[in-house]
Specification:
By secondary structure, this protein is mainly α. The protein contains 11 helices and no strands.
Length: about 300
């Protein structure tokens, strides 16, 4: 609570989460609804945009090339950013934490084999890997699940679990020689129980901090892939949960930057706000959970 930036970041995260959860209720229009003759409208406060049109109170952030409400699309795009941040994180933790803990506790050949495999994945350029996976499998059944989100979850988790595994292994190496672990061994506790009852609770702090930084990385990756045209598939079904993403809106905005610059600015500001908020929250969690950084 002493870290004002972290509190501000948490408020922004909660705000966007509420927008994502209640988008069908809060959005003024359906994000796929076309408003005839009202394309390329600037935001409501702009008297005259670059294309000579004036903003309308009906469309707070203006409209896009097809006359769709930008504000409604921003709200629905927040859904994708929330899911892209949370779901891959869960998969990453489910893979990285057990692998890192097992490698650090077991040691020897198992540790060396797992860490060398992790090093191979860690050395591969992340963005290039994402582009290859999304491009190669985009037309397959897997690439069509959830409009391409399932494939994105898989690609993000496949690469990013390595960092969590390395972090958990380092924490495990420093903890396994502690007295409470030795005492657990002396009373006959197996490795599985030691990992669950003794090592995991004591590695939770660094894992939580790392998680707060993994989420914005996933959001940025989705935005970049959407901007490159290999992210979320465009949806034409108003019943879909995931209709558009901020990355796809960036792609649409850059093609119309001269006529309606707010098409690019609105999703760019949204991505910047949510990423900064998670980074501020991560800094605050680090200060709170790391005894060496706690303020007196």
């Amino acid at each position: 609570l002493q870290n004002k930036a972290a509190i501000g970041g948490a408020i922004v995260i909660i705000f966007f989460s509420v927008l994502a959860l209640f988008a069908p209720i809060l959005a003024p229009y359906n994000p796929l609804e076309l408003h005839s003759g009202k394309d390329f409208l600037p935001p409501a406060w702009v008297a005259k945009g670059p294309n000579g049109k004036a903003g309308s109170p009906e469309f707070l952030l203006g409209t896009d090339t097809l006359g769709r409400d930008v504000l409604s699309r921003i709200m629905y795009g927040a859904r994708v950013s929330r899911v892209v941040g949370i779901v891959p994180l869960i998969i990453i933790l489910l893979i990285g934490v057990p692998v890192g803990m097992f490698a650090g506790l077991r040691g020897g050949r198992a540790d060396n084999l797992l860490m060398r495999f992790a090093d191979i994945l860690y050395a591969f350029p992340d963005l290039l890997f994402f582009i290859i996976i999304m491009t190669a499998l985009r037309a397959t059944f897997i690439g069509q699940l959830l409009n391409g989100l399932f494939l994105l979850f898989f690609a993000l988790a496949l690469v990013n679990w390595v960092g969590v595994a390395r972090l958990t292994r380092g924490q495990t190496l420093s903890l396994k020689e502690k007295e409470f672990v030795e005492a657990a061994r002396m009373i006959g506790s197996k490795n599985g129980r030691i990992m669950r009852k003794h090592l995991f609770p004591n590695t939770l702090g660094p894992i939580i901090v790392a998680s707060a930084f993994i989420i914005p990385g996933a959001i940025i990756t989705e935005a970049v892939l959407g901007y490159l045209g290999v992210g979320l598939r465009p949806s034409t079904d108003p019943k879909d949960i995931f209709i558009t993403s901020w990355g796809a809106m960036l792609l649409d905005g850059q093609t119309a930057i001269n006529a309606q610059p707010w098409l690019l600015l609105a999703p760019a500001i949204a991505v910047a706000l949510i990423v900064l908020s998670f980074n501020f929250l991560g800094d605050g969690l680090r200060d709170a959970l790391d005894p060496r950084l706690r303020r007196s």
